[in-house]
Amino acid sequence: MAGSKRSGGLSVFTAIAFAVGNMVGAGVFVLSGLIIDTAGPSAVLSYLFCGVLVTFSGLSYAALASIYPEDGGGYLFSRRMLGPLPGFIAGWAMYISLTIASAFVLLGFGIYANLLLHTSFDSRYFALAGLIILFLLNIRGLSEAGKLETGLVVSKVLILLAFIAVGFIHISVSDFTPFFTAGTGGMLKGMTMVFFAYIGFQVVALRGGEIKESSRNVPLATLAAIGIVAFIYIGVIIGLLSAHLPAYGEKSVFDAALVLFGSIGATIVALGAVFSTLSSANANVIGASRITMEMACEKQIPGRFARLTHGQPVNSIFFGTLLAGALIIYGNLTFVVNLTNVTTLVTMALVNASAFLLVRREHLVPPEKTYFRIPLGVLIPALGGISCIAMLVTLDPRIIGLGCAVLLAGLVLYYIEDTPEGEMIRREINERLGRVHEK
Q1: How many CB atoms lie within 10 A of CB 373?
Q2: What is the mean pLDDT of the chain?
């Protein structure tokens, strides 16, 4: 049995909030200024075109999630459609990409913590402090205490909508001239960087077993989240351009808020960024830990790697914390974004391949089964897979090599024989996820 399915309790609106909350973090507060620095005003197209490409993959996720309305997301889909080894690669790539993304988001947390507190410490100190806090919360099983995610998402979206509204009031045609300041190449490079900002939509499929009427609501929440976030990203770019900053970079949203709203408004934006990035990083930690629990149940990794303490896979959280900490200390924002993109693109390419096979084998689906049918047949998953490969090959070959090396290193876990202790842990995880015992 792949994936877990419990009595769904999350509404479609809560599912959308989780996805939007995961995507609206450092991708807005840190990355948007870097994209303008790379692409100029054509950053609008970088976000728009990337959103369209991600939608192809989102449709693939939606179709597969309606067939397999269980926890596991891309890992589950690849495991079911492509087999054990591709499933392992997809799952391990998801775990690594979520862990690496945590490092980037926490670096954003460090940047805005400095701005909020009016300090000038190395932002990595705040990032490491945030990482330690999240580690301690998660290993004690307190990561989701309070169920405040929806409230946090609404708060930060309202802050950004106010920023966008003022930007639309002040924007003029001259702010987009010249449009391609770095040529079309700059816009295309911006697209590859922007991809990172959209990957959070996967959280809906990852938690499919917890969502009410998941066969219908998971596809709806996935596509709605991508559309909402695309609007926010493009609106923030317009707001940044309307502020006429002398230069754009990692803290441009704060600088633009200072111009558009004054010091009080900038402080509110910084506060929203601090909570936003910390909650997004925590969502990544939760997602990564969930993946390892699913993989342990499938005997794709040793049970010891997902050993439970307070109901949380402490060993996988500890390993992820070490990896994220190393990237915070030794990496930079661009490096971390590109490395995340490598591992995520691998997963999404495999999911699109799974959706392609689903469409080809649609006649095998029971006729009474209600599910989301991908429009235009195999064309959409084919475009999704091609776009993933196309974006992957545009990255620095050294980054691609490093990302592939990290994924291949994970194969050690795939081939390690489990122990009796690991089997006991696997049964404990089954109980934790509400599954029946397996042989």
Answers
A1: 15
A2: 83
